[in-house]
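Narrative summary of target 7.
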Amino acid sequence: MLNNGVMWVDTGGKIIGINSGTSKEQTLAKSLIEQGKQSLHLSVNTFKKPVLDWKTAKYHIRVDDLGEHNFRYAVWGINKKLSDKPSMALLNGDITFEGSGGNYHYTFKNCRYSYVLQVAIIGCYYLTAGWL
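Modeled conformation, tokenized:
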């Protein structure tokens, strides 16, 4: 967190959030989102705002807000570029908030599987996939 929460940066130095109301800062935020869209495959480069961008030992995972709380999950093999077509993209994800600690998770369904991305403000991050 920088400047009392005006800007959020991940451990790698990547800007992950800008909480500001000035027109200059809003323009910067829109510009950063547009730059990010340019690096993505055409099938997943349309969204309102990015939500999650995670890497695991085997996968690169993105969650994007398509607007009106409609979330998309896209995944690539760790050795693939984001400009490549994702291995899988799922729409209509749900977000569930868990208590008052700030934790929440996204759930995406694909046939018999449910993919859950747990965002832990208090605790650890983890991804699970399982049978419905």
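The chain is about 10% helix and 45% strand.
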